[in-house]
Amino acid sequence: MGRMASLLLAVALALLLPTSFCAAEPIKTTPTLWSFHLPLPDGVIGAESLAFDRRGQGPYAGVSDGRVLKWGGSALGWTTFAHSANYRKIPLCTASVVPSEQTESMCGRPLGLQFFAMTGDLYIADAYMGLMKVGPNGGEAQVLATQAGDAPFHFVNGLDVDQATGDVYFTDSSAIYPRRFNTEIMMNADATGRLLKYDARTKRVTVLKADLPYPNGVAVSNDRTHVVVAHTVPCQAFRYWLKGPKAGQYELLADLPGYPDNVRRDARGGYWVALNQEKARLDATAPPAKHLVGVRLAVDGAVVEELTAAKGVTLSDVAEKDGQLWLGSIELDYVGLV
């Protein structure tokens, strides 16, 4: 081989080696097995979504009897912060004599929660009552919307607030099935869900995207250019562009290793996605090496961290505050803290 050919080969190898042998960043694994538990009051379960107010107090959590509770520290414990009008009017809502599955359509089931820091108002996505709001002092929540156009809501689910404008982005998971029939949404591959926007100035709701398969959690991006939407089925996260050359486009952000619920911004510009259940594996005979209950996505959708838990534990929310992770579940009777 001549000197020139050798030089060219050396240059070519120098250009190729950094990319060819550059290993991908390892995915961090964070176990939640030893997380601190805050037990919910007797008779209620399911802190499906968590929120913190503008003073950093909380968490606030919607639970199975239709209330939003506030954690006031170990001295005060949990207190009632908000509720629907029906909660005080219908005795079954407070009696706890029948399962909540039979009363939630009457008493309400708060799911997505988020404060608008400028006013202190808490916005509530109630699966049955619709989009609701309560002031910073709590009390009976006001119903803001129960339909978009001529189409009523059937299953209001995830929610986030643009902290600059007060606009609310939320999902209606199905145009056919209410929450208590959420299994049918999956079994029948229902794709009638919608991504919606409540305009804080006009007080009107508009449909941003229709015909979606089980849209669930929503998060406004850190730069407010798009919103991320978790689709429980088919285990994916999409983003709807609000601004820029892609405005109005709906594109895939990430394929997820499980069935997602809520999505939250993390402290790095990415997102925490809670997983209700892992994907079915092709090799179902061998036990999984680890039980995933959540993942953290980078800005580009890459999985950069996994949350694991004991078998049987599921999460519906992962909220990051002051470097700590607060964990909510639709099925458990406590709020976790990592």
From TrEMBL:
GO terms for cellular component: vacuole. Its main location: other. It is found in: Vacuole. The keyword Cell wall biogenesis/degradation does not apply. One of its GO terms (molecular function) is hydrolase activity. Pfam families: Str_synth (PF03088). This is Protein STRICTOSIDINE SYNTHASE-LIKE 11. It comes from Zea mays. The gene is LOC103634723.
